[in-house]
Every structure is written in C-alpha cells, then in structure tokens.
Amino acid sequence: MEFGINFFPTVGPDDKPAGTYFDEALRLAELAEDLGFDHVKTVEHYFFKYGGYSPDPVTFLAAVAARTRRIKLVTGAVIPAFTHPLKLAGKLAMLDNISKGRLQVGFGRAFLPDEFDAFELSMDESRPRFAESLRACQRLWAEENVVWEGDFYRFGPVTLLPRPYQRPHPRILVAAAITPSSCEQAGRDGHGLLLVPSISKREKVQEMLTLYRKAYAEAGHEPGGDEVHMSYNCYLSEDAGEAHAQGKEYSQRTNSVMVDAVAAWGQRRSEGYEGYEKIVDRIAKADFDRSLAENKVLVGTPAEVVERLRTIREWFGDVTISLQVISGNPAFEESVRTMRLFSEQVLPHFRDQD
Amino acid sequence: MEFGINFFPTVGPDDKPAGTYFDEALRLAELAEDLGFDHVKTVEHYFFKYGGYSPDPVTFLAAVAARTRRIKLVTGAVIPAFTHPLKLAGKLAMLDNISKGRLQVGFGRAFLPDEFDAFELSMDESRPRFAESLRACQRLWAEENVVWEGDFYRFGPVTLLPRPYQRPHPRILVAAAITPSSCEQAGRDGHGLLLVPSISKREKVQEMLTLYRKAYAEAGHEPGGDEVHMSYNCYLSEDAGEAHAQGKEYSQRTNSVMVDAVAAWGQRRSEGYEGYEKIVDRIAKADFDRSLAENKVLVGTPAEVVERLRTIREWFGDVTISLQVISGNPAFEESVRTMRLFSEQVLPHFRDQD
Ligand SMILES: [Ca+2]
Ligand SMILES: [Ca+2]
Ligand SMILES: [Ca+2]
Ligand SMILES: [Ca+2]
Ligand SMILES: [Ca+2]
Ligand SMILES: [Ca+2]
C-alpha cells in the first residue's frame, strides 16, 4: 500500500489567514517527504471553507515541487470544466517538468452547485464536458498537431508546449463519488480512480472497485499498484481518549463546513448527479462514532489505526491512502504529530506487503 | 532603479527539453535573489518557441516563491482572456499568500492571432474582455460578496478565497505595447505599466511614458517608484568582442522565433490591434547593430552596459528594468555569467540613485 497526505483545507480568514495556511501546508508537505510518505495531494474548490483556500491545486503543487525531490504530486482533483483544456494541459505539463515527472493528474467533475453557477455552467452538461476535456488534455499531452473538434471546444492543429516530462503523459486518475459506471469507464480507459469511502457504504465501494478492476484488466491495462486512491480524515495520538475526543472534534468541524458547501443541493436536482441529494442527507446526519465503527475515519492510537487499515485492506485490497491531517483545522503541531506517529508506527506495517 | 530577470523562453523540445529548461530557470531565479536582483518575471504564451514553454506564469512563479524569500514575483503578463477571472484571481491570491506578499500582477491583452484562434476568441473583443477581467479580478481581491454583471461574465455574490496577502490587492501592472491611450488609462487607474521599448522608437516610448505619468499624477495616485517596467535582452561579457558576437546571435535567434509566432499577422487585421502589422514588419527587418546603437538591447561589457543604462535613465527616468538573459537560448553558464557581471559591476551604479 502507498500513503500520502491530502491537503483539504476547511478554513476561512476568520479561522486562519491564508499566509499562515500556505506556510504550514508547505512545511507539512516537506515533512511528508522526509517521513517517507509517497504523495502530496490537494483539491480544487471555491468560495467556501470547504476547500476554498485551494482554487488551483497546480499552484500549490508547483510550490511543493520546488521544495521536494522525491514525493509524488497528485491533483485530487482538478476540475476541467473550470479551465480551458489548452490552459489546463499546459500548466500541468509545466508542473510535470518542474517536478521531473512526479505528477499524477486526478480529474474531477465537481459537484457543488454554487461553483457551477459562478462559472455559468450547467450541471447537466458536467459529464460530457468532463469526458471531452479529459480526452483533450490526454491528446494534447500525447500527440503533436492536435486537431480538436468537440462539443465544447474546437482548436488546432496545435502542439502543446511544454511537452510533458512523462511520456506519453502523467498517470490520469478519475474522481468517482458514487457512480459505478464512472468506475467502469475509468477502468476501461486505463485510468486510476479517486474514491471517497467516507460517503458510501462499504459494500457500495466494493462494488465500484470490482467493476473498476474488472474493466481495467479486461481492457488489458498493466496494473501499476497505485491506481486506486482513497482519502480518510486522520488523527493520531498515543492517548486513545485524546485521539477520539480530538479526532471527533475535527471530523465534526470538517463535516460542518461540508454541510455549508452542499447546502444548495437542498433546492437543486441535476440529471448528471442522480443520488447526490442523498449524500447531502448523509453528511448532515453523519455521526462520528458510527463513522469510526465503520472505518471511515483513521482516528485512534497508532495500534488502533494499524488495525483499521488491515480491515480496509481486507475490504478494498492494495489501495493508496491519502490522509487528511489538516481538515477540521487542528493545530499545526497536532498535524505534525499525526504524521510522525503514522510514519513511525503505522507505515512500517504496510510497507512489506507491497 | 530596480532590476530583475524576465524569463522569456524561446526554446522548443528540439532545443532544450522542458525538464532542463525549468531546472535551469529555477536555479537562475534563486541566483537572482542571491545576487540582489529585485524581481523575477515570466510570460504567458502558447504553442510557439516564442514563450510557449510558459503557458501559465503562476505555475512557474509558485515554484520560484517556494525557493526564495525576498525577491518580488511579477507576471509579465497573465492573459485574462484565456482564464476565467474567478480562476485567475484565485490562483494569483494563492501565489500572493505562498510568497507572503511578493506578487505584482501584470495583465496583458495578448497579440498572437494563433493564441486567440485556439481559445476561440475574437481579437476584436480583446480590449473590452481585458478591461472587464482586470476589473473583476481587482474587485474579487478587494471586496467581499462581489456581484459581477459584465458583458462576458456574470457571477455572485461570491467572496473569493483565499483573500490576497496584500491589501487591498497586489500591485497591478498593465502591458501596453504601442497604444498611448492604454498608458493613459493605466495611469488614471493607478496601475503600473509593462513596456517593451525594443519594438518602438524612443520618442514613442517617451510619449507613452509622459501620458502615463501625467494621468497617474493627476488622478492623485501615490508614486511607488517601481511603476514602469521595461524588458531588455541582455548579454554581458568582459570581452567586448565576445559580448557583441554572442549577444547578436542570441538577439537574432530571439527575433527569429518571434517572426514565426507573429506570422499569422500577415493575413490578419483587427480593429483592436491597429498598427500591429507594422510591428511585425519591424521585427522581420530588425537589425542587431541598429538595435544596439538605439539602446534596445543591453549587450556589451559591464562598463558599456552601465553607459547604456545611464542613457536609458536619461530618456525614460527611474524605471524598473527586466533583463532577458535566457532568450535566444544561450548556454546556462552564459546566463549565469551575465547575471553575475551585472550584479557585480552594473547594479552598484544604479542603487544609490533611488
Ligand atoms: Ca526536504
Ligand atoms: Ca503498491
Ligand atoms: Ca480541541
Ligand atoms: Ca536562495
Ligand atoms: Ca526606485
Ligand atoms: Ca555561439
């Protein structure tokens, strides 16, 4: 299994000035490399405390690339609907070169109605926009003299500069929240998968994984071992009581900023997002103790978290885990402690099984 | 006077792999800080060797921000027509925070027909698009709950996250190639100015500067001393003959990639770009020895370049100079030497006059 840190900010100016946020996040990213984690990841969101400090994951990851030498950089995810593919493919190719080939590109459809509204885009078009943009980026990276005649973009012949460092292009990952057919498509296309196990039942995640892996294998793609990424809120302490109390507080805070961000789903339905109103409902009713019992958060002592991860591996197989150690706005020193305890007492149990 | 380095790449994959380009550029950016330069700047261009390795200046400057502590970071320029203002303002605000307030944002209209074609934008709309996007970014940075109802964008109320580090926002600079009224407008608005003295006669540049400074003063804006930026190709050697021979070679190469990039102007006219066909003509006919005689390139021994800069200061006053030390694709060591000679033997002559 591989492990990394997912920078999912849940703060606004009244919680933490952005200068402090980025200073701390860059220090934690350097620490992640020093502690032997495999990747640094960050999100794309706008306007809300829920991810809003990170409207452009490439900008943050470029800074991380300049401060590190080994660790992989993962967008989790970029939203192609909000950036022209010529621009998106170009800046990702820059990042791939700046990092000397450490980039993996997660693409997402986005799901917050307020974001689509601000960019004047219809959520109903989200699926075809996503498919077209992802494919356009892939061709711009892999081919020269690209002529693109799609439903949303027409350009070419153009040859993207710079050419990506990785040939034909960086690994592509597809964010799939709850839609099994998206997983199947990603598998057929040979892309990786970004999953959020906390918002679905275990059986649902397993169903999505089975479809994905079957389609991936049937299409003849080579397994890389790090195709499937899953993010978990994570809080560790050697004191079990403290771990649970603080882990609960930060999980609840994370949840409460998510409730604000998804509020618009109360008055919105979109054919491209069937079932999303249920997610919203589930988030509003989320209960920390149940989440903990269902292994949807990695909270506890190191020994406890080792057990949780063994169970997760039994359920889902050899997946890549992204730890959310800043969500809920813990003190910087608490995030450092969680990462150190994980590196020292949890990671070693999962390194040899690779 | 202030001095910095403008990273204007003129290479493609057959000249230099992009991994090498960014590795060298980041090392030169660190060196710029260590040698006492005031800023690092880079361009936004696509597809051609003329700037095409830099489709997103923010990505490169974020990496520079992570490797430096003091030096200012300047976009020279971002093209708002190619990025939604919510996205553009957001990532620039991230960079301002990552760099702890070292950002200055140059905005440009772009002028290459192939770039507008690829983004499916009419050049005729370039001026109103530019004005609307710049103003939208400025309001998104300075205000909360922004409602925008423009000709090209409608959104809000939204509060941009993250808030910029500098309040109300980073200094804004406006790229003005040949249009005096753009300079006047920039002055009225209290913005800085990015000028390219190599493409105009000295008297034309002086006319633009006079209009700018008059409008700036009459509108009651505080002079900061670093409002006016000018870029110059620069090559130094202690051997005058070598400096001229190599400086000429690199200037001619720079010119030849520019000729390729502007070729589409041969069959294009746009009401927003009156007179641009003449620039193209001028570039095609450019003669290095005449450019040198007219102080449009900073080439020579350090003593010679000191004299050239004294003349430039007499002509244009206390401006900020951006040295193009990689354009034309000199060897890395030659760029290093130019920067060292400039820092040691040229800079000291212009520090005390501030
Ligand atoms: Ca390190
Ligand atoms: Ca593995
Ligand atoms: Ca507490
Ligand atoms: Ca340094
Ligand atoms: Ca000054
Ligand atoms: Ca030579």
UniProtKB/TrEMBL annotation, chains A, B:
| Phylogenetic lineage | Bacteria, Bacillati, Actinomycetota, Actinomycetes, Kitasatosporales
Keywords noted in UniProt: Monooxygenase, Oxidoreductase
Q: Domain Luciferase-like, which positions?
A: 1-316
Which InterPro entries does its entry note? Bact_Lucif_Oxidored, Luciferase-like_dom, Luciferase-like_sf
GO terms for molecular function, please? monooxygenase activity; oxidoreductase activity, acting on paired donors, with incorporation or reduction of molecular oxygen
Q: Name one GO cellular component term.
A: cytosol
Pfam families associated with the record = Bac_luciferase
Superkingdom of source: Bacteria
Q: Which protein is depicted? A: Flavin-dependent oxidoreductase, luciferase family (Includes alkanesulfonate monooxygenase SsuD and methylene tetrahydromethanopterin reductase)
